[in-house]
Amino acid sequence: MPRKHDVPGARRKSFERRMRNMPGRTRTAIIVAVALFLVTFLVHFMVQTILPARENEITDWRFVCASEAGAIEGDLSAYQQATGENRVARTFGSPYMRLQYTLPASQEGVRLVFRTAHNPLRVEIDGERVLNNGYGEENFTGSSYQSVTVAAGESRTLDIYLYAPLAFSLEAYVEPVEISASESFTRYIGFGLSSSLLLLGAGLFVLGLCLAGKSGHIRRLLLLSATVFCGGAAAMLYTYTQTTALLSSPYWFAVQLLTELLLMMLAYTTILACHNKALRNAAIWIPVAIVCALVPLFQTAWAVRVAAVVMTGAQLFIAIRANAVFADSATEEAPHMGAMRGLLIYAALVGLYNTCGLFLGLGLMSGYLFAGSIALMCTAMFVIYCRQVVYLDVKKQERVQQMHADSAWLGDVTNLISDAFQQKDERSFLIEIARSLSGVVEKNAELGGESVDVHASVGVRTGNEFVEIFNDGQVENCDYQLIYDHLDRQEQKILIGRTSADMLFQQDGHSAVIHLENILYGITAEVENVMKAAFLNLSTVYQNFSLKHDVSDIQEELFINLATVVEQKSRATRSHLVIVSALSYELCMEMGVEEERARLISLAAMTHDIGKISVPESILEKEGSLDPSELEQMKQHTQVGYNILSLQNGEFFETAAIIALEHHENFDGSGYIGLRGSQIDPAARLVRVVDAVDALLSKRSYKEAWPAEEVKRYIAEQKNILFDPAVADAFLGCADALLALRERILSEEEAS
Questions:
Q1: Residues with Cβ < 8 Å from 664, sequence gap 6 or more?
Q2: Radius of gyration for the chain, computed over Cα atoms and rounded to the nearest angstrom
Q3: What do you get for the CA distance between the two ends of the chain, in Å?
Q4: What does each C-alpha distance from 145 to 116, 118, 456, 582 come to in angstroms?
Q5: 40, 138, 193, 692: which is deepest, by most CB within 10 A?
Q6: Could you read off the pLDDT of 654-665 as tens digits, one per residue?
Q7: Helix, strand or coil for residue 132?
Q8: Contact 231/374 with Cβ under 8 angstroms?
Q9: 147 — alpha (psi -120 to 50), left (phi > 0) or beta?
Q10: Of the candidates 286, 197, 294, the residue with the CA atom closest to the CA atom of residue 238
Q11: Which residues make Cβ contacts (< 8 Å) with residue 564, sequence separation at least 6?
Q12: What is residue 715's predicted lDDT score, i.e. its pLDDT?
């Protein structure tokens, strides 16, 4: 019986609820992105135009703008005057600029520093050229930073010739040749930030490798750490262009554009991998990367503009597609999904602004913002998946290990029944059960790291008195009559306490009590379920002791009874299993399955949720939504069921194991383990439909029952999505008969 996150109907309602909430989540992402962008833009605008200049910054420029280089040569007779409040601004359509400033007399040598928006420039002092960074030769340069040392002397005239066919900005200031430690720190803080991102990416990579043995998220963790590292590399490249003149070649400007695009592509690929989405149409990025890579070959402003437009379009496309992937993912996997989506959209907005800046001549925003936002997003996702590794995956392995132990106990119980069945008389039958059950409980304690000696005894009722026929020598004064009086009034003839267990066997006037005690460390819920299932079968064998059934039949009945016990953990009844079994048989016959195979599938279907033996009752009975840890535990019941059933031999267990493993697989591949279409076993595809139908029609603590017509409509809508179309069509073809059969089973259940 599927839980809320498992039931197709509940899944549909969850999906519809998610769709209704989607605008709100998208608004959150957009609000975060726009808010960050506006803050960034305001800071950028204030630094460029409003905030007062630094103490040693040159602002009082005499400047002219022209459309041709020759127009700014010669004497500067007509000019505009800039001040600290009214900064230098380029006239639109006039890419050539000349700026002039009178350097005051100085008794010490100084360094002139110039930062531009990758603009070629030529520097002259009193008409003598002291620096030429591509002016008259290039349309743009790789670095934004240039400096020149000026010796001590009288006042001199400083002329700067600058070409800005793309974005324009100019920051010029005077500093000592030997700068102070504080100035050095301020200048190279970018190296510290980018180095921190590089170290963070490397550290996350190492952490991902350390978790590799325990995590199913290793691909995600390594991709996320690689993206953070590449973000640091992009930030480091930007730092070099802002603080040194080592990368002056225009090729480096194209490398920066290409790096920005590749980082965005890597982030997109990482997001897809994190949410189990295939990277489709990857070829679309090949021409985009080629266009950006060809910029240095043309070395023209329009080549950069074209590349920037293509790159910005690609960034927006990536942001939209990645946002859709985020929106389609389960919010439990990332509780701050909206904020992370906002960071990705913010990075795209920064790229969009810079592209507009190239066209309109505006100053470009910091490259740290772009690389940092992506790195921050990936770091947040890494932390989320690490939490899943530590709190979910490790627990998952512990549960799987526990279930292997439980599976071994099930094997012991099966052998117990088989050995008991081989006994020739009632006395030896009861003694064998007592010895074997005490052995199972002792094994449970040993697996828990404890060592106990379980005491066992057996009393048989003769007339009105009990005669003890077996005592391992350590049970003292067992009151069999008291146990009998208590259990005889109970519906279930088994009582499992904190340190003891009692069972009452009855057969045509005969009664026997098996007593276990000294269970010092208690009985786990899993072993309690196994013991109850074993008792159901042992009681049946005792009642029909003279009938020698095949041991394989007893094994099948053991597991079916165990499935019934598990079903009762979630306050359900055996009727669900009976309905799934009966409807599976009828649906098999409707689809032309051979009668013997149909019988086998219908029996095996009764154990489809046996793996829920490992799920705590608090989760099975929870009325609200499951949190990520609880949902992960619930999902593991398919693998646990397979582990239990696959340890047994025979066609029944082979079929039951595969149904238990795959009955939550969806036809489109969106199920628990991602199988799709023909990859899913036909029996599991059939049980998938039957289980969903009964779950939808039934009232549970977390949902109301659906009307029959709505269920049929849902099955028809989900063909090729959740359900095999052939099975869905077969069900719809005989739906009325199947639903009538279900009602009859429920009526008989209520009558009994």
A1: 2, 6, 635, 638, 671, 672, 688
A2: 38
A3: 22
A4: 7, 8, 87, 79
A5: 692
A6: 998 999 999 999
A7: strand
A8: yes
A9: beta
A10: 197
A11: 533, 536, 574, 577
A12: 93
